[in-house]
Design brief:
Elements (H helix, E strand, L loop, with lengths): L1 H4 L4 H4 L4 H28 L4 H4 L7 H21 L8 H26 L6 H30 L3 E9 L3 E8 L12 E6 L9 E4 L10 E6 L16 E8 L12 E6 L3 H14 L5 E7 L8 H10 L2 E7 L15 H7 L8 E5 L2 H13 L7 E4 L5
Parallel strand pairs: 7-8, 7-10, 8-9, 10-11
Antiparallel strand pairs: 1-2, 1-6, 2-5, 3-4, 3-6
Helix pairs in contact: 3-5, 5-6
Length: 385
Protein backbone atom coordinates (compact mmCIF):
# COMPACT_ATOMS: atom_id res chain seq x y z
CA UNK A 1 0.00 0.00 0.00
CA UNK A 2 2.86 2.38 0.76
CA UNK A 3 4.18 2.00 -2.78
CA UNK A 4 0.71 2.55 -4.25
CA UNK A 5 0.20 5.77 -2.27
CA UNK A 6 3.18 7.45 -3.94
CA UNK A 7 2.85 5.89 -7.42
CA UNK A 8 1.12 9.07 -8.73
CA UNK A 9 -2.17 7.41 -9.64
CA UNK A 10 -4.48 10.35 -10.24
CA UNK A 11 -7.59 8.24 -9.62
CA UNK A 12 -6.24 7.25 -6.19
CA UNK A 13 -5.27 10.80 -5.25
CA UNK A 14 -8.40 12.54 -6.56
CA UNK A 15 -10.74 11.86 -3.57
CA UNK A 16 -8.13 12.98 -1.02
CA UNK A 17 -5.49 15.16 -2.65
CA UNK A 18 -1.74 14.56 -2.88
CA UNK A 19 -1.12 16.42 0.37
CA UNK A 20 -3.38 14.09 2.34
CA UNK A 21 -1.82 11.00 0.71
CA UNK A 22 1.71 12.13 1.56
CA UNK A 23 0.72 12.88 5.16
CA UNK A 24 -0.93 9.47 5.47
CA UNK A 25 2.13 7.86 3.87
CA UNK A 26 4.30 9.37 6.61
CA UNK A 27 1.95 8.58 9.50
CA UNK A 28 1.31 4.96 8.51
CA UNK A 29 5.09 4.50 8.32
CA UNK A 30 5.33 5.18 12.05
CA UNK A 31 2.49 2.73 12.73
CA UNK A 32 4.16 0.04 10.64
CA UNK A 33 7.48 0.65 12.39
CA UNK A 34 5.86 0.17 15.81
CA UNK A 35 4.31 -3.14 14.73
CA UNK A 36 7.58 -4.38 13.26
CA UNK A 37 9.59 -3.49 16.37
CA UNK A 38 6.91 -5.10 18.56
CA UNK A 39 7.15 -8.38 16.64
CA UNK A 40 10.52 -9.58 18.12
CA UNK A 41 9.52 -8.34 21.58
CA UNK A 42 6.38 -10.49 21.54
CA UNK A 43 8.38 -13.48 20.31
CA UNK A 44 10.88 -13.01 23.15
CA UNK A 45 8.04 -12.88 25.69
CA UNK A 46 6.60 -16.05 24.13
CA UNK A 47 9.84 -17.94 24.74
CA UNK A 48 11.81 -17.50 21.51
CA UNK A 49 15.45 -16.54 22.11
CA UNK A 50 15.47 -13.39 19.95
CA UNK A 51 18.61 -12.09 21.65
CA UNK A 52 20.47 -15.21 20.56
CA UNK A 53 19.26 -14.75 16.97
CA UNK A 54 20.91 -11.33 16.91
CA UNK A 55 24.28 -13.09 16.82
CA UNK A 56 24.40 -12.87 13.03
CA UNK A 57 27.56 -14.96 12.78
CA UNK A 58 25.64 -18.03 13.99
CA UNK A 59 22.04 -17.04 13.33
CA UNK A 60 20.06 -18.81 10.57
CA UNK A 61 19.50 -17.03 7.28
CA UNK A 62 15.88 -16.16 8.14
CA UNK A 63 17.06 -14.19 11.18
CA UNK A 64 19.68 -12.33 9.14
CA UNK A 65 17.03 -11.27 6.65
CA UNK A 66 14.81 -10.08 9.51
CA UNK A 67 17.58 -8.01 11.09
CA UNK A 68 18.62 -6.55 7.73
CA UNK A 69 15.05 -5.56 6.88
CA UNK A 70 14.47 -3.94 10.27
CA UNK A 71 17.77 -2.04 10.31
CA UNK A 72 17.18 -0.74 6.78
CA UNK A 73 13.67 0.32 7.74
CA UNK A 74 15.05 2.32 10.67
CA UNK A 75 17.56 3.96 8.33
CA UNK A 76 14.78 4.71 5.82
CA UNK A 77 12.60 6.40 8.46
CA UNK A 78 15.50 8.32 10.03
CA UNK A 79 16.78 9.70 6.72
CA UNK A 80 13.24 10.80 5.80
CA UNK A 81 12.42 12.46 9.12
CA UNK A 82 15.80 14.18 9.52
CA UNK A 83 16.76 14.66 5.87
CA UNK A 84 17.36 18.40 6.19
CA UNK A 85 19.04 18.10 9.58
CA UNK A 86 21.37 15.46 8.15
CA UNK A 87 21.89 17.71 5.08
CA UNK A 88 21.02 14.96 2.65
CA UNK A 89 20.64 16.23 -0.90
CA UNK A 90 17.05 15.78 -2.21
CA UNK A 91 18.19 13.84 -5.29
CA UNK A 92 20.36 11.54 -3.16
CA UNK A 93 17.50 11.05 -0.70
CA UNK A 94 14.99 10.18 -3.43
CA UNK A 95 17.26 7.52 -4.91
CA UNK A 96 18.18 6.13 -1.49
CA UNK A 97 14.57 6.15 -0.29
CA UNK A 98 13.38 4.12 -3.26
CA UNK A 99 16.23 1.62 -3.03
CA UNK A 100 15.86 1.13 0.74
CA UNK A 101 12.09 0.67 0.40
CA UNK A 102 12.53 -2.15 -2.12
CA UNK A 103 15.23 -3.85 -0.01
CA UNK A 104 13.13 -3.62 3.17
CA UNK A 105 10.22 -5.39 1.46
CA UNK A 106 12.46 -7.95 -0.29
CA UNK A 107 14.32 -8.94 2.90
CA UNK A 108 11.08 -9.09 4.89
CA UNK A 109 9.49 -11.35 2.29
CA UNK A 110 12.57 -13.59 2.29
CA UNK A 111 12.33 -13.81 6.10
CA UNK A 112 8.65 -14.81 5.93
CA UNK A 113 9.24 -17.45 3.28
CA UNK A 114 12.13 -19.01 5.20
CA UNK A 115 10.19 -19.05 8.48
CA UNK A 116 7.30 -20.69 6.65
CA UNK A 117 5.06 -20.85 9.70
CA UNK A 118 2.77 -18.05 8.57
CA UNK A 119 2.72 -19.18 4.95
CA UNK A 120 1.93 -22.83 5.54
CA UNK A 121 -1.37 -22.76 3.65
CA UNK A 122 -1.79 -22.59 -0.11
CA UNK A 123 -4.06 -19.51 -0.14
CA UNK A 124 -1.60 -17.56 2.00
CA UNK A 125 1.21 -18.27 -0.43
CA UNK A 126 -0.96 -17.11 -3.31
CA UNK A 127 -1.95 -13.97 -1.40
CA UNK A 128 1.68 -12.98 -0.90
CA UNK A 129 2.54 -13.93 -4.46
CA UNK A 130 -0.20 -11.60 -5.75
CA UNK A 131 0.93 -8.75 -3.49
CA UNK A 132 4.54 -9.24 -4.60
CA UNK A 133 3.45 -9.20 -8.24
CA UNK A 134 1.51 -5.99 -7.56
CA UNK A 135 4.63 -4.41 -6.08
CA UNK A 136 6.71 -5.39 -9.11
CA UNK A 137 3.95 -4.06 -11.36
CA UNK A 138 3.96 -0.72 -9.53
CA UNK A 139 7.72 -0.42 -9.93
CA UNK A 140 7.46 -1.20 -13.64
CA UNK A 141 4.67 1.35 -14.05
CA UNK A 142 6.54 4.15 -12.26
CA UNK A 143 10.05 3.46 -13.56
CA UNK A 144 9.47 2.00 -17.04
CA UNK A 145 6.00 2.45 -18.53
CA UNK A 146 5.31 6.06 -17.49
CA UNK A 147 8.81 7.27 -18.53
CA UNK A 148 8.27 5.60 -21.91
CA UNK A 149 5.04 7.56 -22.32
CA UNK A 150 6.76 10.81 -21.32
CA UNK A 151 9.66 10.09 -23.71
CA UNK A 152 7.23 10.52 -26.60
CA UNK A 153 5.85 13.77 -25.14
CA UNK A 154 8.84 16.07 -24.55
CA UNK A 155 8.72 19.77 -23.66
CA UNK A 156 11.10 22.62 -24.36
CA UNK A 157 11.92 25.47 -22.02
CA UNK A 158 11.43 28.60 -24.16
CA UNK A 159 11.98 31.30 -21.56
CA UNK A 160 13.53 31.75 -18.09
CA UNK A 161 12.25 34.91 -16.37
CA UNK A 162 13.69 36.31 -13.13
CA UNK A 163 11.08 37.20 -10.50
CA UNK A 164 11.15 38.88 -7.10
CA UNK A 165 12.39 36.85 -4.16
CA UNK A 166 15.11 34.78 -5.87
CA UNK A 167 12.53 33.04 -8.07
CA UNK A 168 12.45 32.18 -11.76
CA UNK A 169 9.54 31.40 -14.06
CA UNK A 170 10.12 28.63 -16.58
CA UNK A 171 7.93 28.76 -19.70
CA UNK A 172 7.53 25.34 -21.30
CA UNK A 173 6.17 24.52 -24.74
CA UNK A 174 5.08 21.01 -25.82
CA UNK A 175 7.17 19.54 -28.64
CA UNK A 176 5.32 17.36 -31.16
CA UNK A 177 2.16 17.06 -29.07
CA UNK A 178 -0.68 19.23 -27.78
CA UNK A 179 0.44 19.31 -24.13
CA UNK A 180 -2.31 19.01 -21.52
CA UNK A 181 -4.96 21.00 -19.73
CA UNK A 182 -4.72 21.61 -16.01
CA UNK A 183 -6.82 23.14 -13.28
CA UNK A 184 -5.48 26.26 -11.53
CA UNK A 185 -3.60 25.20 -8.40
CA UNK A 186 -2.42 21.84 -9.74
CA UNK A 187 1.23 20.79 -10.06
CA UNK A 188 3.50 18.57 -12.14
CA UNK A 189 6.73 16.61 -11.73
CA UNK A 190 9.53 18.20 -13.73
CA UNK A 191 12.71 16.70 -15.21
CA UNK A 192 15.10 19.15 -16.92
CA UNK A 193 17.87 18.27 -19.38
CA UNK A 194 17.77 14.60 -18.42
CA UNK A 195 16.04 11.43 -19.52
CA UNK A 196 12.46 10.80 -18.31
CA UNK A 197 13.92 7.58 -16.87
CA UNK A 198 15.95 9.65 -14.38
CA UNK A 199 15.25 8.56 -10.81
CA UNK A 200 14.80 12.11 -9.57
CA UNK A 201 12.05 14.50 -10.59
CA UNK A 202 10.80 17.60 -8.80
CA UNK A 203 7.20 18.68 -8.01
CA UNK A 204 6.29 22.30 -8.83
CA UNK A 205 2.95 24.06 -9.11
CA UNK A 206 1.86 25.61 -12.38
CA UNK A 207 1.87 29.41 -12.11
CA UNK A 208 0.31 30.26 -15.48
CA UNK A 209 -3.38 30.67 -16.25
CA UNK A 210 -5.23 27.42 -16.91
CA UNK A 211 -7.05 29.14 -19.77
CA UNK A 212 -3.96 28.98 -22.01
CA UNK A 213 -2.42 25.59 -22.69
CA UNK A 214 -0.16 26.29 -25.66
CA UNK A 215 2.53 26.82 -23.01
CA UNK A 216 2.66 26.24 -19.25
CA UNK A 217 4.69 28.07 -16.62
CA UNK A 218 6.27 27.00 -13.35
CA UNK A 219 7.73 29.53 -10.92
CA UNK A 220 10.55 28.11 -8.82
CA UNK A 221 12.35 29.76 -5.91
CA UNK A 222 16.02 29.14 -5.18
CA UNK A 223 15.91 27.01 -2.04
CA UNK A 224 18.71 24.49 -2.65
CA UNK A 225 19.56 21.34 -4.61
CA UNK A 226 18.02 21.56 -8.10
CA UNK A 227 16.29 24.88 -7.45
CA UNK A 228 19.58 26.69 -6.80
CA UNK A 229 20.51 26.12 -10.46
CA UNK A 230 17.18 26.96 -12.07
CA UNK A 231 18.34 30.47 -13.05
CA UNK A 232 21.15 28.92 -15.11
CA UNK A 233 18.79 26.91 -17.36
CA UNK A 234 19.07 28.05 -20.97
CA UNK A 235 16.11 28.50 -23.33
CA UNK A 236 15.89 25.55 -25.68
CA UNK A 237 16.62 22.99 -22.94
CA UNK A 238 14.62 19.76 -23.23
CA UNK A 239 12.32 18.89 -20.30
CA UNK A 240 9.68 16.32 -19.37
CA UNK A 241 6.49 16.89 -17.39
CA UNK A 242 4.39 14.37 -15.48
CA UNK A 243 1.05 15.96 -14.77
CA UNK A 244 -1.24 17.46 -13.97
CA UNK A 245 -1.58 16.25 -10.38
CA UNK A 246 -3.46 17.41 -7.31
CA UNK A 247 -6.94 18.55 -6.29
CA UNK A 248 -5.80 21.87 -4.79
CA UNK A 249 -8.02 23.92 -7.09
CA UNK A 250 -11.19 26.03 -7.01
CA UNK A 251 -12.29 24.14 -10.11
CA UNK A 252 -12.66 21.04 -7.95
CA UNK A 253 -13.94 22.87 -4.86
CA UNK A 254 -16.55 25.40 -5.93
CA UNK A 255 -17.72 28.09 -3.53
CA UNK A 256 -19.25 31.58 -3.33
CA UNK A 257 -15.78 33.01 -2.72
CA UNK A 258 -12.26 32.06 -1.74
CA UNK A 259 -9.65 32.71 0.92
CA UNK A 260 -6.10 32.09 -0.30
CA UNK A 261 -3.39 31.87 2.37
CA UNK A 262 0.17 31.66 1.05
CA UNK A 263 3.58 31.57 2.69
CA UNK A 264 6.75 32.17 0.66
CA UNK A 265 6.83 30.06 -2.50
CA UNK A 266 3.26 28.99 -1.67
CA UNK A 267 2.15 31.98 -3.73
CA UNK A 268 2.82 29.94 -6.91
CA UNK A 269 -0.49 28.00 -7.12
CA UNK A 270 -2.33 31.09 -5.86
CA UNK A 271 -1.13 33.24 -8.75
CA UNK A 272 -2.33 30.55 -11.16
CA UNK A 273 -5.75 30.65 -9.49
CA UNK A 274 -5.91 34.46 -9.67
CA UNK A 275 -4.67 34.64 -13.27
CA UNK A 276 -7.24 32.05 -14.32
CA UNK A 277 -10.06 33.88 -12.56
CA UNK A 278 -9.02 37.13 -14.28
CA UNK A 279 -8.98 35.46 -17.72
CA UNK A 280 -12.41 33.96 -17.07
CA UNK A 281 -13.90 37.22 -15.81
CA UNK A 282 -14.75 35.52 -12.50
CA UNK A 283 -16.44 38.01 -10.15
CA UNK A 284 -16.43 35.94 -6.98
CA UNK A 285 -14.66 37.67 -4.05
CA UNK A 286 -11.16 36.57 -3.06
CA UNK A 287 -9.14 37.38 0.03
CA UNK A 288 -5.39 36.73 -0.29
CA UNK A 289 -3.17 36.60 2.80
CA UNK A 290 0.43 36.46 1.60
CA UNK A 291 3.31 36.06 4.07
CA UNK A 292 6.89 36.57 2.92
CA UNK A 293 10.29 37.25 4.47
CA UNK A 294 10.12 40.85 3.29
CA UNK A 295 8.27 42.97 0.76
CA UNK A 296 11.30 42.83 -1.53
CA UNK A 297 10.95 39.00 -1.60
CA UNK A 298 7.20 38.96 -2.23
CA UNK A 299 7.05 37.24 -5.61
CA UNK A 300 4.43 38.69 -7.99
CA UNK A 301 4.05 41.77 -5.74
CA UNK A 302 3.56 44.13 -8.70
CA UNK A 303 1.16 41.83 -10.55
CA UNK A 304 -1.06 41.49 -7.48
CA UNK A 305 -1.79 45.22 -7.68
CA UNK A 306 -2.92 44.78 -11.30
CA UNK A 307 -5.05 41.77 -10.39
CA UNK A 308 -6.81 43.78 -7.68
CA UNK A 309 -8.12 46.06 -10.43
CA UNK A 310 -9.33 43.09 -12.51
CA UNK A 311 -10.87 40.97 -9.75
CA UNK A 312 -12.87 41.38 -6.56
CA UNK A 313 -9.58 40.78 -4.77
CA UNK A 314 -8.35 41.97 -1.39
CA UNK A 315 -4.63 41.40 -0.78
CA UNK A 316 -3.06 41.44 2.68
CA UNK A 317 0.74 41.40 2.52
CA UNK A 318 2.46 40.10 5.66
CA UNK A 319 6.23 40.65 5.67
CA UNK A 320 8.13 38.97 8.47
CA UNK A 321 10.60 41.86 8.41
CA UNK A 322 9.30 45.30 7.39
CA UNK A 323 10.48 48.88 7.53
CA UNK A 324 9.43 50.91 10.60
CA UNK A 325 7.03 52.98 8.49
CA UNK A 326 5.12 49.87 7.28
CA UNK A 327 1.57 50.15 8.61
CA UNK A 328 0.22 46.79 7.49
CA UNK A 329 0.39 43.34 9.05
CA UNK A 330 3.78 41.86 9.87
CA UNK A 331 5.23 38.72 11.43
CA UNK A 332 3.56 35.32 11.04
CA UNK A 333 0.03 34.29 10.16
CA UNK A 334 -1.69 33.21 13.38
CA UNK A 335 -5.18 32.99 14.88
CA UNK A 336 -5.40 36.65 16.02
CA UNK A 337 -4.32 37.85 12.57
CA UNK A 338 -6.90 35.63 10.86
CA UNK A 339 -9.63 36.89 13.18
CA UNK A 340 -8.84 40.47 12.14
CA UNK A 341 -9.56 39.69 8.50
CA UNK A 342 -12.15 36.88 8.56
CA UNK A 343 -15.69 37.82 9.52
CA UNK A 344 -18.58 35.38 9.98
CA UNK A 345 -19.45 35.51 6.27
CA UNK A 346 -16.10 33.94 5.40
CA UNK A 347 -17.13 30.57 6.90
CA UNK A 348 -18.96 29.74 3.65
CA UNK A 349 -15.89 30.36 1.48
CA UNK A 350 -13.39 27.78 0.28
CA UNK A 351 -9.94 28.03 1.91
CA UNK A 352 -6.70 27.21 0.11
CA UNK A 353 -3.50 27.16 2.18
CA UNK A 354 -0.03 26.64 0.72
CA UNK A 355 3.39 27.18 2.24
CA UNK A 356 5.84 25.78 4.78
CA UNK A 357 4.47 22.88 6.83
CA UNK A 358 4.52 24.73 10.21
CA UNK A 359 2.53 27.63 8.76
CA UNK A 360 -0.02 25.32 7.13
CA UNK A 361 -0.49 23.39 10.39
CA UNK A 362 -0.92 26.59 12.41
CA UNK A 363 -3.49 28.00 9.97
CA UNK A 364 -5.40 24.69 9.90
CA UNK A 365 -5.64 24.73 13.70
CA UNK A 366 -6.75 28.37 13.73
CA UNK A 367 -9.46 27.75 11.12
CA UNK A 368 -10.68 24.68 13.01
CA UNK A 369 -10.96 26.81 16.17
CA UNK A 370 -12.96 29.35 14.14
CA UNK A 371 -15.32 26.50 13.19
CA UNK A 372 -14.58 26.57 9.50
CA UNK A 373 -15.81 23.18 8.17
CA UNK A 374 -12.95 20.81 7.42
CA UNK A 375 -14.32 20.05 3.95
CA UNK A 376 -13.77 23.73 3.04
CA UNK A 377 -10.07 23.69 3.97
CA UNK A 378 -7.60 22.56 1.30
CA UNK A 379 -3.84 22.41 1.86
CA UNK A 380 -0.62 22.00 -0.07
CA UNK A 381 2.56 21.76 1.99
CA UNK A 382 5.29 21.70 -0.67
CA UNK A 383 7.03 19.19 1.57
CA UNK A 384 7.35 15.76 -0.05
CA UNK A 385 10.36 14.96 2.11
Amino acid sequence: MQFALVARFQAVAAPFGEDALIQFHRQISYVALVFILTHPILLQLAGTDIVGLLNLAQAPLRARFAVASTVLLLVLVATSVWRRRLRINYEVWQITHGLLSVLVVAFALAHMLLVGYYLDQFWKKWLWAVMTAALVGLLLWVRVIKPLIRLRRPWQITEVTAERGRAYTLTLRPVGHSGFSFAPGQFGWLVVDRSPFAITSHPFSFSSSAEYTDTVQMTIRELGDFTSRVGQIRPGTRAYLDGPHGVFSPDRNEGPGFVLIAGGVGITPMISILRTMADRGDSRPVLLLYASHSLAEATFYDELEDLERMLVLTTVLIPENADPDWTGERGFIDAPMLSRHLSAQYVRRQYFICGPAPMVAAVEDALASARVPAERIHTERFNFA
